[in-house]
Specification:
- By secondary structure, this protein is mainly α.
- It contains 11 helices and 7 strands.
- A hairpin with a 2-residue loop joins strand 1 and strand 2.
- It is globular.
């Protein structure tokens, strides 16, 4: 009897939420645990992950749970966190399905790239990675910093964060991701001549950064070391882009973390 009394308030709250058309928060803890275990500073331990089928199944259960959610009824930040996590989890699942591979580009034929494969069905709509990014995240959220959270399983991509994104900390997580990526001087820097060298991401999605800050340079300037001193000359220089590395972002022979 006491157990029924304890469960009754929870049932009433859940029923009231459904009656009002609200959604219960999405639980990202399973994904968070997997990322903590298999993501290292050197990349993703795909080899170790592939040898733990129970953790592959956890990833797939998490993806299944995401597809049962209704992000259209979430607040802006929980919804954006949801879509970023869905993109990253689906990408990891694609790689693990085909592992071992040298690049995510090895998945699928030229006429059917990995980004065009259906990876999830959300609120009745089948979606590919390309659609999640270009039909949902970019036009609906206008969050330029989300480009540093989406991970395409390549070394040239901003590194995957070793934790899930959550609505209540999303702003600080995205800001930290932006700082980390733009702090990588192999990819983003101002050289001795004042020429700006940036990741190809800034070329491919220039419109998003221009919409956010007025220009690509205005967006990146606060994050590049030494940029204030060279801002006047660098801002007038043509942007140049570093080569994008499509090699799989694998941490070779890195053991999973406890």
């Amino acid at each position: 009897m006491k157990r029924v009394q304890r469960l009754l308030p929870m049932f009433i709250v859940a029923k009231a939420a459904m009656a009002e058309g609200a959604t219960l928060p999405v639980d990202h803890r399973m994904f968070d645990e997997l990322l903590h275990r298999y993501v290292t500073p050197a990349g993703v331990s795909y080899q170790d992950w592939s040898q733990h089928p129970e953790d592959i199944q956890k990833l797939r259960r998490y993806l299944s749970g995401l597809q049962s959610a209704t992000p259209s009824q979430m607040g802006a930040e929980p919804a954006l966190a949801y879509w970023i996590n869905l993109y990253n989890a689906a990408t990891l699942n694609l790689v693990l399905e085909k592992y071992p591979i040298k690049s995510i580009k090895d998945i699928g034929a030229p006429s059917s790239s990995p980004w065009e494969k259906t990876v999830a069905t959300v609120e009745g709509r089948p979606l590919s990675l390309s659609q999640i990014e270009n039909d949902v995240i970019r036009p609906k959220f206008h969050a330029a910093r989300s480009h540093f959270a989406l991970n395409c399983a390549a070394r040239g991509c901003p590194p995957i964060r070793p934790e899930a994104y959550v609505g209540e900390r999303l702003r600080s997580q995205l800001e930290d991701q932006t700082k980390r990526f733009l702090g990588d001087r192999k990819t983003n820097f101002v050289d001795a001549t004042g020429t700006i060298w940036l990741s190809k991401i800034f070329e491919w999605y220039a419109a998003d950064f221009e919409a956010a800050s007025g220009s690509v340079w205005a967006f990146v300037a606060p994050y590049l070391e030494g940029s204030p001193a060279g801002a006047r000359s660098a801002s007038k220089s043509p942007l140049r882009y570093t080569e994008y590395d499509w090699t799989l972002n694998e941490a070779t022979n890195k053991p999973p973390k406890d």
